[in-house]
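Task: fold both queries, return tokens.
Query 1:
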Amino acid sequence: MADSAREGILQRDKETYAIVPKTPMGILNPEILEKVAAVAKKYNIPIVKITSAQRLALVGIKKDDVEKVWEDLGLEVGYPVGACLHYVQSCPGTAVCKLGQRDSLAMAQKLDDLLSNTALPAKTKVGVSGCPLNCGEGFVRDIGLFGKKDNGWTVIVGGNSGLNARIGNVLAENLSDEEAFDLIKSFAEYYNANAKSRERLYRFVPRIGIDEIKKALSI
């Protein structure tokens, strides 16, 4: 999966390519920024775009330069292809936001680590928010969470923001960090065992029924 994405995404001009390095939760540091700036100058990359998935897209790379850019960046591929975790987006949460009630960045990183190494039937997107304002867009992601200071996490499943838009269903509420993580792990295993090939969660959840899913997970 990563190898094909590493080859780059052919652009509209049919001549140049885009690559998407992995930047979990959209977090960047000075070293990454310096590398991106250096390769953009060195290879005359015309566009560096922040995507809706909190990733960086370097657009307009010549075919012969694609692998050289990867080598200079020294970053993992952030645009997986096919049935796997595609990304985890997150708001800043209690790390910096004055409205944050839960540590969304820490939870998002744990879920990225978990789901990156979990078999999934279809591409899966995750959104994590540190308060009910839902800046992490969890209600329109395959799996979503939002947190409240005194009530813990609410877990949402089956959302989608694409052509077949769907508001996700609440799977469980008032969960601790550990309970929310364990539930998502169990849900991912249930999804993998019961979904059709390449069946996205916005189709899987209404087909099975949220009550049946809760029953199967002992909620």
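Query 1 returned. Query 2:
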Amino acid sequence: MKNIIIFGAPGSGKGTYSDEIVKRYNMGHISTGDVLRAEIKGGTELGKIAQGYIDNGQLIPDELMIDILAKTYDSMPAGKGVIFDGFPRTIAQAEALKKMLAERKHDMGLMIELIVDEETLLARLLNRAKEQGRADDNEVTIKKRFEVYHNQTAPLSAWFEKEGIRNTFTWKGSKDVMIGEIFDFLDKVNG
């Protein structure tokens, strides 16, 4: 199985679809949020450095994030492929990920882009806020996250297109339809 980068706006279902793909294809799954929390909780050297940035309200530098991802990637079973969920978020991160994988004689594989209209995304995130009690999912914060996504992350879509690995899947009102389309695609690519 090829490596997969799952890509989309906040609320597009990256975690949900990653879980489905991992189950079906027995792949590794690297969620940057989970990896960071594990490094910090484990008190690793990288976790301590990351915690220092977080405590000062700073973003974790790309180089440190790549070091953390490389350590996690190297611990995954070889040959099964890995889903990168939540990374990369910028062109600089994508280039750093490509370089890290190339150093291991691996490539990025393919990118799955989840395209969902903003009205649906907003409704999903507000619903998630109610269900999970997430204070960061209020309408003002969500709109700011969309703005950051459009300004900083969405341009990556064209970068992946130039790399020849971009594959888009558009929401048609059903999770089952969307995952079915993704599975059909992955079966063909890996068949």
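Both queries returned. Flag for query 2: The chain has one domain: 4-183.
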